[in-house]
Amino acid sequence: MKKILLGCIALSIATGIMAQRPTGPTTGATNTAASSSAAADPKMASFNIPFNPDATVSSEHEATIKGVRVPYKATVGTMPVWDKDGKVEAGVFFTYYERTDVKDKSTRPLLISFNGGPGTAALWMQIGYTGPRILNIDDEGYPIQPYGMKDNPHSVLDVCDIVYVDPVNTGFSRPISKDIPTTRFFGVRADVQYLAEWINTFVTRMNRWASPKYLIGESYGTTRVSGLALELQNAHWMFLNGVILVSPTTLGIERSPREAAALRLPYYAATAWYHKKLPADLQKKDLTDMLPEVEAFTLNELIPAINKGWLLGDAERKEIAAKMSRYSGINEKVILQNNLDVATSLFWKELLREEGFTVGRLDSRYKGIDKKDAGESPDYNSELLSWEHSFTPAINMYLREELKYKTDQRYYVFGPVNPWDRTNDRTGDNLRTAMAENPFLHVLVQSGYYDGACDYFNAQYNLWQMDPSGRLKDRMSWEGYRSGHMMYLRKEDLEKSNNNLRNFIKRTIAKPGTPAKY
Fold first, then answer.
1. Dihedral of the alpha carbons of 194, 199, 204, 206, in degrees to the nearest 10
2. Residue 38, pLDDT score
3. b or e along 196-213 (b: 16 or more beta carbons within 10 Å of the residue's beta carbon)?
4. Dist CA 5 CA 60 (whole Å)
């Protein structure tokens, strides 16, 4: 079941002491230095240990998914990124799960998975969401001990093969030399361009050109995959069947500061509802029955009111503030003091201030305790530290012990990728263009109601603004979950989100002989 395949290539990546050197063929150079961004941060520095940018190790496993036995091969390792002259610039680390009892790969979908940051690795969705093995956490997503892994009975590996990709300076991915300019990787456009090249290499080596292809990204990963959808079409002639956006960013779709301030209110209402801070008439309603009232107020009253600025009369201003207070759980006086613009950081600090707690940014179900109750923002992100607590030991145990990836190299949960060039972010429009050009391409958005970083209402706003004519809306869908940024950490939503993803993949594979045309 976990037998290591004979003849596989052993990996050699290390940071502290020399690891076993790879015995198989390599492509390109050997790294004897860290990236320049890592060198600038002592916490992230490597120690001039050789790095093989092109080596893999494989092992065989099986899982039971939806009650069915699924045998699969797991391949972990690195694959090169080349410059325009064909010289290796970096090695990108990946984990590839391939169902082994499916002989015809031409109809077998391939799901290519990225997380965000932009400086974080693919571990979150790999061992938290769609992979065949997931970490040990409680039913609401909190850390438990002993740390470790368990089977994921809801994984989508039954319907598609999956590759999880760690961009440069995340996970075990590295540039081969400190002399490689970081601008080659660290920016909206640079990131999309080199990863599209890498995907081309991966699809070619794994013989997956015939397969229906899907991209899934979470958080900044949604920016990444939205840009990749068009880049793959236009620069690599690779056309997709679907793009899945999990907790999407704004995708470069402009909001005025006034719009941004107003669009946060539905998220505030959801969080206040969860913590029982709404008036009784709202609190007694179910979450999804309560939110439409807040959403209508946001679009029809709040945005026009905030846009008036000082032209808004005192009586009308007070009326708007009173409604905002009713929907957010924040005192009307605080709202007026902030000119109807309550920053998210203040909301996280203010909502439970009287109880002595803050609420989380990425998942506002989580509570934190600050040194002082006073102040305008929390001391720390309670949810993120909780997740790092549970994910970091699990991914290291899984890759090094179960999948037999032997290295002394540090696994970058968050790696050094700054400065990151965020100019020319038109990824939302890129995705719309890709959809217009490719009638097969569908989009699924998954959001958590309690996500304060990439909130659910802004995710819906993205879709409205991407396609203002509504001509593509039949190929766009949005889903909400009663959790946060990583909705799948809640046991109930792990099953629901995987089932919805599974159904999305099944329904977006064109029937044989169906032409891609309008």
1. 140
2. 39
3. bbbbbbbbeebebeebbb
4. 7
* 489 secondary structure, DSSP code: G
| Residues of the chain falling short of pLDDT 50 | 1-40, 42-43, 45, 47
- The rounded radius of gyration (Å) of the Cα atoms in the chain is 23
Burial class (CB in 10 A: 0-12, 13-18, 19+), 190: middle
CA 371 to CA 429: how far, in whole Å?
43
Identify residue 430 by its one-letter amino acid code.
N
Residue with tokens 């002491």: 17
Residues 6+ apart with CB under 8 A from 387: 124, 141, 486, 489
- Superfamily covering domain 67-72+83-93+100-253+420-507: Alpha/Beta hydrolase fold, catalytic domain (3.40.50.1820)
Hunting for tokens 């994910």 — which residue is that? 391
Between strands 133-135 and 149-151, the pairing is antiparallel
Q: How high is the pLDDT of residue 408? A: 83
Kindly report whether the global pTM for this prediction surpasses the value 0.70: yes
Short-list 245, 191, 220, 205, CA closest to 441: 245
The region, left, alpha or beta by phi > 0 then psi within -120 to 50, assigned to residue 347 is: alpha
Report how far residue 172's alpha carbon sits from residue 51's, in angstroms, rounded to the nearest whole number.
10
Q: What is the rounded (10 degree) CA torsion for 140, 144, 150, 154?
A: 0
Instruction: Provide the residue ranges of all domains of the chain, joining segments of one domain with +.
Output: 67-72+83-93+100-253+420-507, 258-383
In 345-427, which ranges are E strands?
A: 358-359, 367-368
Tell me the residue ranges of DSSP E strands in 27-117.
55-65, 68-82, 88-99, 110-114
Which residues, at least 6 apart from 362, have a Cβ–Cβ distance to it below 8 Å?
Answer: 381, 383, 384, 451, 452, 453, 484, 485, 486
Q: What are phi and psi of 337, to 5 degrees?
A: -60, -25
Instruction: For residue range 276-304, list pLDDT tens digits in order.
Output: 999 999 999 999 999 999 999 999 999 99
Q: How far apart are CA 62 and CA 60, in angstroms?
A: 7
pLDDT of 47: 41
For residues 52 and 31, give the distance between their C-alpha atoms in angstroms, rounded to a whole number. Answer: 7
Helix extents (H) in 174-286: 188-205, 220-236, 257-263, 265-274, 280-283
Helices in 309-455 by DSSP H: which ranges? 314-328, 332-337, 344-350, 382-397, 427-437
What is the pLDDT, as a whole number, of residue 48?
A: 66
Report pLDDT for 407: 87
Centre a 10 Å sphere on the Cβ of residue 482 and count the other Cβ atoms it contains: 17
Task: Show Cβ contacts of residue 219 under 8 Å, excluding neighbours closer than 6 positions.
Answer: 115, 116, 117, 246, 247, 248, 249, 453, 454, 485
| 3-19 residue pLDDT tens | 333 333 332 223 222 22
SS3 266: helix
Residue in the block written with tokens 């300076």:
169
Q: Which residue carries 């009173």 as its tokens?
A: 322
